[in-house]
């Protein structure tokens, strides 16, 4: 067997680990293909080349499979033995069986012995593959025991590995709820790689002594091992090294259940900071106790309290004497006309339909049983202190949080291009709104995100005006619809240095999946809150803060540069971590439509927020919530904990594959240009200098560097494509070309871009279909040009020019009119949006002015402040360019005139813009 050196290519160094599952599948298929050619080849020269290629692929696969239970190390020794004996025909049969077992995932359901080569064994794999096709996916077979893999970290010899593996195999019983296999690794680095590349690992047993270094050159670990050296690790005790490894595994995959087996003083070890271990075993503990403990830990994550209760309820014979004729399906099963609903949906959805809160069920408004438990599990999964289910969408979740935290006249800093639910939430709460402008991407008619410097400058303005105590909340969208992601921890840390009790509401409607990927997770609200809480409690931070404070105090506090041009650190004795996140669970994880969650990490929640939060929740939550949505949130949480890492990794892989093809295909490049990091994040916000995550030679190896350091990054799973070169605007391309012609659905466009989003349900087949469609459209545009007359070509050129060169600059927020400013003579920008909103309810306070005929512009030229009396929201881009009480600027008018969209909410073309009369502005009501 050849020496498995990992220094030859980026693949063998696992530098392409972002696409490791695709690399694994593609390499096995390529090996099968090469063996088939070799067996049927007579040409000796070409045969030698094929043997060499097979050797390379086996070497590559051995590295990858070292971190998986199937095929096992023993299986690989069998493959190498056949290869070394040049039994290529038999090797081909074994590889075919192995590939079929991987594709059908039959290894999850039964032991696959690759030493068997008879026809019956091959037939079993074929039957498994057919069964998978019929079911659509093996996971849909709910009667099968869920399968996982146990990682054991121990410096074992090959015979010792087999003994341990066999010992755990012998513990398995048919009545066990789960079935598992064992992966063994021998070093600190190998353990980290295993949890990164093997999503089947759900539990980890760290045993005895193990070295630091892997035998492979694992470049994929570089960003995770900063500050750790082999020398420092070798000086640590067995317990210290185990605890450090446990901490790093938890950072990468917090869902993994971890157990420590120690040969030392188990009582002394237990007194250390071992919070990431479920349990410590002494070396004499028998395998059966470890086996049952591991299964019990997995079961704790696999439970779905409310879904289980709802299923039990649906089996009970009940007499229904309350509202809802459809409950138990009664109004449908007895119908001569409505039976098609049962044909379409099945009976169970109706058997589980009820408005009862007893009989094993629970009340969403005041949970005490399975809903309460399901929400506690959700908090665990998403890293929150409290989590709450919302059954009428994230628009409502946003309003609940705002109402719970904001009193009338509290000042809220909010990004102006956020979702409309926030603007309406400000109206309902009576907040004084201070809008923050995101950096514009004028070339693509979209906004990025709000620079930290802009936020700090606004807070500093309130501090100097003596009004900082009125500022209650910072509300930002992360990630944005277009995929721009904040450095959440840095934003929170620097803002807390100016106002240590500032509340953060992060609208993560499109980011619920991010908590289940180690690259994404640090930029989520809950992770940042926990990390900062731990940081500010440490002695190391206090020393860092004292040194920073001494340096800061020597500077001029009245100079803006003192605050804006350097990182700020909060006082550990004053700071309070108060973070909220809202998730559209249904957008990026498994849930029925309108299934959302609120996650809380607020050190003051119990003291200050719990009661008003409950009232806000009661205000906005239906007394008849949909139990199917609640059950889907429960199941979605369980799925995210059990296989979220795998599903999100596959989602990112699919996106990277799509991007790679769009980057490199000549015809696609001509008409469709993927916007990369440098297109969507200006250089001043890219501290890493990384322009794109992809390099044709080294692959996807720059992503971690950018995500670790930059103020803003782009989520690669959201692919924005500039289509200006087609001469077709985004809305037309979406409806007439993608949807009507090919059935491809998207829901975000700008004037010259379309957005494609991968999700946890996206398959490689879906990506292939999209690429096929884009290639067909590119060819269609080629033919259109070739067959056009000179006048027709001129028309196309003019359209392209309009979509690529004649793009109106995106307007900033102008200002609130003095009538709606609490302090019209002051230097702070907040406005009373509620006062303006309700002032427009009386017709005599408003009038319509048209800008398409110059009427509005003429009024502005006379010196009149024209003030919007409504929200004006063009689609796209889908955010308000005017809010009630805002002065209409020339820039805003120019933008509205240049838009070629037909849908502008709050604007009636036949009447114009709804604005306040001058009389209403002279005498606005107060309070």
Profile the largest sheet.
8 strands, mixed
User: What's the arrangement of strands in the largest beta sheet?
Assistant: 6-15-14-13-11-7-8-20
Distance between the termini: 83 Å
Stretches where pLDDT is under 50 for at least 5 consecutive residues are: 1-13
Number of domains: 5
Q: Report strand %.
A: 5-15%
Please give the CATH architecture of the largest domain: 3-Layer(aba) Sandwich
Nearest-integer average pLDDT: 89
Total strands: 25
Identify the overall geometry.
globular
CATH fold title of the largest domain: Aspartate Aminotransferase, domain 2
Question: In CATH, what is the homologous superfamily of the largest domain?
Answer: Type I PLP-dependent aspartate aminotransferase-like (Major domain)
- SS content category: alpha/beta
The DSSP helix count reads 36
Write down the Rg: 30 Å
**CATH class identity of the largest domain:** Alpha Beta
Percent helix, as a range, is 40-55%
Protein name: Arginine decarboxylase
Organism: Halomonas ventosae
GO molecular function: transaminase activity
Domain Orn/Lys/Arg decarboxylases family 1 pyridoxal-P attachment site: 304-529, 580-764
């Amino acid at each position: 067997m050849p020496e498995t050196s990992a220094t030859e290519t980026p693949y063998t160094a696992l530098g392409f680990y972002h696409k490791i599952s695709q690399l694994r599948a593609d390499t096995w298929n390529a090996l099968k293909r090469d063996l088939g050619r070799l067996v049927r080849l007579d040409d000796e020269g070409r045969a030698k080349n094929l043997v060499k290629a097979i050797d390379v692929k086996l070497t590559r696969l051995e590295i990858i499979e070292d971190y998986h239970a199937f095929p096992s190390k023993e299986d690989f020794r069998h493959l190498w033995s056949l290869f070394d004996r040049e039994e290529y025909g038999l090797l081909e049969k074994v590889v075919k069986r192995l590939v079929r077992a991987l594709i059908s995932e039959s290894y999850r359901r039964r032991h696959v012995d690759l030493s068997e080569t008879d026809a019956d064994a091959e037939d079993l794999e074929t039957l498994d593959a057919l069964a998978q096709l019929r079911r659509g996916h093996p996971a849909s077979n709910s009667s099968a025991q869920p399968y996982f893999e146990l990682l054991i970290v121990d410096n074992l010899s090959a015979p010792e590995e087999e003994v341990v593996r066999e010992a755990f195999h012998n513990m398995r019983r048919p009545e066990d709820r789960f079935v598992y296999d064992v992966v063994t690794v021998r070093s600190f680095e190998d353990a980290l790689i295993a949890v990164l590349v093997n999503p089947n690992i759900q539990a980890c047993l760290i045993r005895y002594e193990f070295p630091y270094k892997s035998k492979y050159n694992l470049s994929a670990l570089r960003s995770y091992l900063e500050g750790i050296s082999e020398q420092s690790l070798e000086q640590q005790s067995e317990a210290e090294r185990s605890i450090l490894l446990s901490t790093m595994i938890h950072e990468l995959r917090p869902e993994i259940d971890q157990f420590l087996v120690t040969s030392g003083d188990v009582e002394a070890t237990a007194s250390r900071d071992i919070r990431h271990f479920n349990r410590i075993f002494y070396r004499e503990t028998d395998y059966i106790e470890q086996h049952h403990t591991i299964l019990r830990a997995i079961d704790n994550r696999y439970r779905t309290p409310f879904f289980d209760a709802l299923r039990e309820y649906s089996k009970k014979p009940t007499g229904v004497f309350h509202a809802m004729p459809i409950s138990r399906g009664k109004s449908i099963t007895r119908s001569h006309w409505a039976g098609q609903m049962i044909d379409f949906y099945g009976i169970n959805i109706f058997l589980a339909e009820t408005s009862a809160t007893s009989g094993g069920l629970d009340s969403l408004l005041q949970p005490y049983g399975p809903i309460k438990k399901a929400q506690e599990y959700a908090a665990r999964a998403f890293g929150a202190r409290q989590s709450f289910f919302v059954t009428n969408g994230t628009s409502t979740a946003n309003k609940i949080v705002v109402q719970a935290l904001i009193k009338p006249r509290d000042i809220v800093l909010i990004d102006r291009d956020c979702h409309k639910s926030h603007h309406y939430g400000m109206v309902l709460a009576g907040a004084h709104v201070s809008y923050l402008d995101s950096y514009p991407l004028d070339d693509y008619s979209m906004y990025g995100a709000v620079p930290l410097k802009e936020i700090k400058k606004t807070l500093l303005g309130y501090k100097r005006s003596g009004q900082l105590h009125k500022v209650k909340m910072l509300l930002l969208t992360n990630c944005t619809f277009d995929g721009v992601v904040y450095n959440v921890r840095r934003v929170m840390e620097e803002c807390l240095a100016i106002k240590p009790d500032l509340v953060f509401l992060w609208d993560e409607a499109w980011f619920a999946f991010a908590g289940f990927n180690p690259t994404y997770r640090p930029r989520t609200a809950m992770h940042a809150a926990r990390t900062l809480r731990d940081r500010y409690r440490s002695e190391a931070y206090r020393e860092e803060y004292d040194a920073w404070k001494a340096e800061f105090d020597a500077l001029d506090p009245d100079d803006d540069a003192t605050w804006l041009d350097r990182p700020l650190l909060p006082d550990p004795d004053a700071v309070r971590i108060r973070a909220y996140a809202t998730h559209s669970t249904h957008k990026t994880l498994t849930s029925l439509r309108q299934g959302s969650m609120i996650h809380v990490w607020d050190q003051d929640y119990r003291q200050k927020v719990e009661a008003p939060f409950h009232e806000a929740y009661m205000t906005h939550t239906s007394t008849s919530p949909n139990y199917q949505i609640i059950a889907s949130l429960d199941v979605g949480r369980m799925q995210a904990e059990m296989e979220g890492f795998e599903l999100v990794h596959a989602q990112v892989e699919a996106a990277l594959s799509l991007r790679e093809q769009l980057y490199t295909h000549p015809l696609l490049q001509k008409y469709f240009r993927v916007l990369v990091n440098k297109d969507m994040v200006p250089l001043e916000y890219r501290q890493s200098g990384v322009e794109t995550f992809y390099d044709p030679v080294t692959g996807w190896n720059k992503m971690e560097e950018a995500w670790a350091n930059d103020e803003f990054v782009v989520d690669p799973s959201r692919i924005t494509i500039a289509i200006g070169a087609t001469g077709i605007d985004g809305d037309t391309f979406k409806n007439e070309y993608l949807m009507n012609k090919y059935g491809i659905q998207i829901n975000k466009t700008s004037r010259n871009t379309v957005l494609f989003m991968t999700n946890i349900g996206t398959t490689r087949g879906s990506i292939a279909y999209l690429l096929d469609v884009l290639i067909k459209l590119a060819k269609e545009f080629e033919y259109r040009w070739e067959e056009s007359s000179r006048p027709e070509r001129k028309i196309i050129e003019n359209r392209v020019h309009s979509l690529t060169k004649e793009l109106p600059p995106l307007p900033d927020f102008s200002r609130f009119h003095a009538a709606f400013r609490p302090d019209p003579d002051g230097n702070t920008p907040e406005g009373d949006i509620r006062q303006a909103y309700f002032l427009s309810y009386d017709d005599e306070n408003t009038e319509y002015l048209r800008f398409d005929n110059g009427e509005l512009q003429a009024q502005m030229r006379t010196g009149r402040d024209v003030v919007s009396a409504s929200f004006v929201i063009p689609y796209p881009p889908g955010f308000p360019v005017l809010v009630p009480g805002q002065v209409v600027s020339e820039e805003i008018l120019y933008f509205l005139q240049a838009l070629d969209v037909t849908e502008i909410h709050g604007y009636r073309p036949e009447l114009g813009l709804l604005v306040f009369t001058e009389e209403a502005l002279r005498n606005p009501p107060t309070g």
